[in-house]
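We read letters as residues; the fold follows as tokens. Both lines appear below.
***
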Amino acid sequence: MKDKSSILRKSIKMGSVEHETKVSNKEGEIMAIATKDVISIPPTKSIKDTAKVMMEHEFRRLPIADPGSGKILGIVTVMDILDFFGGGKKFNIIEKKYEDNFLAAINEPIREIMTRDVICLSNKSSIKDTIETMLSNQIGAIPLVDADDKLAGIVTERDIALSLAGVLTEEVAQDYMSTKVFTTTPGTPIESACKIMVRNGLRRIPIVGGEADISNASKKLLGIVTSTDIIRYLNAKELFDNLNSNAASEVLKNIVSNIMAEDPITVSQTERIGDICALFAEKNIGGVPVTKDDEIIGIITEKDILNAIKTL
């Protein structure tokens, strides 16, 4: 049986991820692939400005830290923002507290929607323990803290997946892809797409259709929309600054075909996992549909990569 930690150590040595500095003796091996210069925000930052920070830096999550002590107070993810904008329970802030006044609600402090019980690990942690913690708690990132409980770094499933570029050469997509794929059609309102994502814990939804034969249309891949695509649309300057209506429902009536990526990158079922990790790094993506004869048969994401390591 292959040792999961040794696979990642090998990937770091092979240079699949560049590291200009060595991990100090005071830090664990996880710090070799973690981000050390972490951008965090205070709990008083508005939801609107938090979304802007996420898009400016292409982050899928942001730690919330006390400005004075540097200690972790919470974390906010793209999924929290989607939930707030119409996908789930946090939308109640708009609907009930602000009576559907979108512009008022987006100026709420981020503490209103952040996750407060944050799972953290020590910056002395091993890679193996980090992977097991991510999978057992179904989370995509873990803040790392020092002996004083101050934020020292953050590691994501993406960091782990990218470090495996070119390393897993025997494992292929069909062995680890998700065959239960949630899809939607081009005319789906953005609000409905948000709900599909939040309720099912999805960061991306393939868009299918375009065939007269309904049985074929349900599998014909036309595009893909991600949680980041939706936040980018909601975060657009013309939307926030020139919105004619305060109603959130009006903002979210636009359909997914207007924001989806057409001709999405896909892989075959026999694509090697190591090559898929390299593709993620090259294209700056976190998941791809798996297709056969132009029809979608599965999807593989960074989380599936972690599961691949777990089963080795």
Q: What stands out?
A: The chain has a mean pLDDT of 83.
